[in-house]
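Usage

Read records sequentially. Each one opens with the input sequence:
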Amino acid sequence: MYVGSLSIDLLLGDVHSLKEKRGVVRPILAELVRRFPVSASEVGDQDLHRRALLGVAFVSADARHCREVLNACERLVAGRPEVDVLSARQKLYGEDD
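and closes with the structure output:
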């Protein structure tokens, strides 16, 4: 069993309040969960209106499949015009970890 995690640090575009931030972040999280069998949440920078830290987790029996799904999630978020990806970090945990 492998557990993959992806953290994506985002800079949000034309956002001036936390309410506007929710209007940008929630649809991204919903699309991730709808298109892929992952868990996704905003995990950091909740008090900053132009930054967001998203966390994505995926469990698989195959390490390669785990990486493929996380890479697809990263591409989906990077393709959104209303955000800029500042960094994305993947970690893969196996049974020995």
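Summary fields computed downstream for this record:
- The domain at 2-93 is CATH 3.30.70.1120 (Alpha-Beta Plaits).
- The chain has two helices and four strands.
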